[in-house]
Write a structure and sequence with these properties.
Strand order of the largest sheet: 1-2-3
Number of strands: 3
Strand content: 25-35%
Largest sheet: 3 strands, antiparallel
Shape: extended
Structural class: alpha+beta
Number of domains: 1
Radius of gyration: 16 Å
Helix content: 25-40%
Length: 70
């Protein structure tokens, strides 16, 4: 966690601290930007990895824009 705090200047908040669910939310400038699941728990079955989500104001507008970029 120190790495993410130091490198990205993220604020970190532990939201799950049990032995089977250790999860931390990261935020930057007051906005959630990442969630970190402890890769040693049973929930992390595929090993360490990143899952990326994108937030858009309008799905329809985003899809139209993507279509123009192909």
């Amino acid at each position: 966690m120190d790495f993410y705090r130091d490198v990205f200047a993220w604020d970190l908040e532990v939201v799950g601290a049990s032995s089977d669910f250790r999860y931390t939310m990261a935020s930057a400038n007051g906005e959630n930007c990442a969630g970190i699941l402890d890769a040693t728990t049973d929930l992390a079955t595929s090993g360490p990895h990143w899952v990326v989500y994108f937030q858009v104001g309008s799905v329809d507008e985003a899809l139209e824009r993507v279509a123009t970029l192909r």
